[in-house]
């Protein structure tokens, strides 16, 4: 009899829990949501996040507040979300660094693949290989020759370990089979400022950060890393066209929630993301930045999880070959 009562009690508790979870999904959201950007304000990922957050806010009927939690290549912000309550009110929008940090950092406060629930992919931003406007080479082949000949003095800027520009720089070194002098900064802004001022020579960064400078002629563009030329940078060849065979890299972005967030909630967020990515303002602003919203079938938990798993596998040998780890 005691065993039957115990089983009944467990069943009742489970039923109450399931009802509570279902109710949460039906009423969510009831208050302001925080979306964490693991980088400083004003950077490329921050720009993408604010556009998407505004559009999702309209669909969800509740405001999404963007919070910048920078530091340690995005791992501080990711760790903050990993340890947050799994109720759907604290989210993370992170880029490709979510995958590379699994190898790049020797010690993480979270298990990259198992500490989060997945919402969906947001966009895949092309990169640009750029330099100070008075650098001598006039095309990518000339730049490669120049960098190899001056590998001990040429400086390659990045926005810090784990930043998109750092990752692209490592891939560039791998493709050219040459090590360069890298100059890490505390964010994209100061790195671009020094490139504009001629204090550093080269940078590989997202179109969301370089397009206006390229169009204004304040930096020199050698290539884009997309499969085809970009509509807003039609005169800039692809890396493939310019002679760097197989060099294609995009800085994809995705939205995550803490592990244990109810499936109904992540599904609601995914549907909202799909609506947001069709918003005319998002589409237009993304186009200005040289990118496009992810397709509806990519803005799903399944697609984001598969992307993250595949990218961890892809970047592991690149990072190991470069030997640029962080504690």
Automatic annotation (TrEMBL):
InterPro entries assigned: BUG, Bug_dom1
Signal found in the keyword field: yes
Top-rank taxon, per record: Bacteria
Protein name from the UniProt record: Tripartite tricarboxylate transporter substrate binding protein BugD
Source organism per UniProt: Shinella yambaruensis
Keywords: Signal
Family, as annotated: Belongs to the UPF0065 (bug) family.
Signal sequence, start to end: 1-25
Pfam families linked to this entry: TctC
Record carries keyword Signal: yes
């Amino acid at each position: 009899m005691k065993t039957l009562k115990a089983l009944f009690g467990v069943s009742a508790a489970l039923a109450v829990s399931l009802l509570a979870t279902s109710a949460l999904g039906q009423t969510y959201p009831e208050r302001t949501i925080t979306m964490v950007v693991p980088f400083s304000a004003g950077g490329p990922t921050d720009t993408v996040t604010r556009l998407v957050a505004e559009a999702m806010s309209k669909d969800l009927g509740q405001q999404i507040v963007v919070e910048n939690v920078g530091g340690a290549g995005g791992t501080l912000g990711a760790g903050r979300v990993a340890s947050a309550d799994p109720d759907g009110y604290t989210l993370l929008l992170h880029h490709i660094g979510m995958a590379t940090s699994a190898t790049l950092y020797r010690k993480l406060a979270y298990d990259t693949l198992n500490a989060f629930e997945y919402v969906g992919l947001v966009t895949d931003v092309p990169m640009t290989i750029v330099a100070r406007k008075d650098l001598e080479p006039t095309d990518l082949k000339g730049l490669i020759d120049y960098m190899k000949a001056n590998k001990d003095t040429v400086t390659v800027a990045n926005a810090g370990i784990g930043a998109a520009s750092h990752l692209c720089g490592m891939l560039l070194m791998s493709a050219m089979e040459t090590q360069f002098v890298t100059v890490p900064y505390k964010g994209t802004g100061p790195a671009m400022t020094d490139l504009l001022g001629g204090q550093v020579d080269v940078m590989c960064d997202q179109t969301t950060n370089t397009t206006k400078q390229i169009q204004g002629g304040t930096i020199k563009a050698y290539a884009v890393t997309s499969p085809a030329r970009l509509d807003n940078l039609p005169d800039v060849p692809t890396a493939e066209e310019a002679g760097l065979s197989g060099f294609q890299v995009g800085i994809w972005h995705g939205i995550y929630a803490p592990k244990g967030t109810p499936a109904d909630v992540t599904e609601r967020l995914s549907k909202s993301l799909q609506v947001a990515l069709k918003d005319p303002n998002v589409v237009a602003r993304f186009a200005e930045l040289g990118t496009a919203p992810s397709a509806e079938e990519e803005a799903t938990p399944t697609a984001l999880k598969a992307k993250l798993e595949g990218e961890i596998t892809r970047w592991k040998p690149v990072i190991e070959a470069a030997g640029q780890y962080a504690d």
